[in-house]
Every structure is written in structure tokens, then in C-alpha cells.
Amino acid sequence: MLHLFALLCCSWNPVGVFGDIDAVKSVSVMEGDPVTLKPGVAELLRNKILWTFGDQGALIALIDAGQISLFDGPDGTFADRLKLDYQTGSLTINSSRTTDSGPYEVNVKGGPGDQVRKFNLTVYSRLPVPAITRDSSQCSSSSSSSSNCSLVCSAVNVNHVALSWYRGNSVLSSISVSDLRSSISLHLEVENQDKNTYSCVLNNPISNQTKHLDITQLCQPCPEIYSCGFTEPVTRLVITALVGVAAVAFVVYDIRSRDAK
């Protein structure tokens, strides 16, 4: 009898149909796309279903006594964007925003005790195509090598991304940023006559954007103005000084000529 009692105790699961109450399901979506959070059961035996959002557990959706209620959430962030399926209890967020990222929880009350499932939603910003430019300081530097080309790949207003330089399919260098709406850049130096294929890739866990490098277009020889940039002002100064001396000499000569008369 004791053995049977112990077996029943070990096999009883108070969490119910949702499984491990501490398990958190991660969900990712691109900004602007809809996303649906599903309780994950075929049939819900319930008297009440509650959906909450954020660390403070703000109530955003409710089924109670056969009625569906939707709430705008903190600062009205979910206004007119939520949909709750009465049959499945699934919550859909339309036109997702990066501010929708965070923890969600569904609590089904009724039946064999409360049943809880947790989600962590990440909404990623749509990625811009990275820009490749030549490092403007290279031509102005007297120590820069004319056979090399210094390049910068950059992107602005991005978050939770990585920026990488590739030669063919091999990663040469990479940098990442997690700050909200940051700028990111990465340098690369190649030879002007390099025949390899280079590309710069901006990516997050669910998408990427690629910009291919055109060495022929970007890595042109520096204009001559940079090599004579110092000589030209000096030449102008010398010419101005010579003109001034000539003018003074003419005035002195004119005065002496008049005195001689």
C-alpha cells in the first residue's frame, strides 16, 4: 500500500497540460510582422484565461465568463493591435514593435488547478543595407600607402546586430552591438589590385543584409591635390610677397624720379 501511494505521488503533476511551469518559450519576429503566442493545447478546460506582459505582469487580454476583453497595456502600447482566439486562447499581436519585446505569461484558471505558460518575445528591427565607403583620412595622410585602400562598412539606427567583413565565404572580422538604436562600423584594408571578392554583412538572429565591395570603384588613386596640398598655399604666399615688393620698389623709384627733376 505504501509503495502504491508513493508511486501515485511521484506520477502526479500539479502543473497540468502546460508541462514545466518554469520553462520559457523564446519567440522571435521581425518588426511590423504579426506574431501569435499559443498556449499549446488542443482543448482548454477553463473558467478564465489571463494574458499578462512585462516584469510587472500588466493584464493585456482576458477571457472570463465567455467574454473577451482586450487592454491597451502600459502606455497604450498595444492599442488596437491585440486579438484573442476564444477557442484556443492564442494571443496575436499585429504590427509588432520593438517595444513589444519582453516576457509574456498565460494563466488558465479552472479545471485541475491553474495552468501557466511563459514566453519571451524578441521583436527585431528591420535591417538597412550596410554602406561601404573609403576612409577619407587615407588620402590626407602622408604615410598612407598608395597600393592599399582603407574602407569602412557602417550602419546606423540598429540594435542587437552583428557587422562582419567577408572574403569569399570566410569571416575576416566582426563586431556586434546590443544598444538600442546605435551606430556600428568596421574597417578593412585591401590592396588596390586585390582580385578577391569582399562583402559586408549586417545580421541579427532572423535576417541579414549584404553589401558587396567594388574595389575598382572605391579604391581609385588619391587625387593629386592631396600630395600638393601644402605646396600650393606656400607658392601663393611667395607670389603675393613678390608682387608687394615690386609695388614698393615702383613707388620708391617714382618718388626719386620726381625729386631728380
TrEMBL record:
SUPFAM superfamilies named among the record's database cross-references: Immunoglobulin
Keyword Transmembrane applies: yes
Signal peptide residue numbers: 1-19
Protein name (database record): SLAM family member 5
Domain Ig-like: 130-216
Key words, A-Z: Membrane, Signal, Transmembrane, Transmembrane helix
Lineage, top ranks: Eukaryota, Metazoa, Chordata, Craniata, Vertebrata
Organism superkingdom: Eukaryota
Transmembrane segments: 237-255
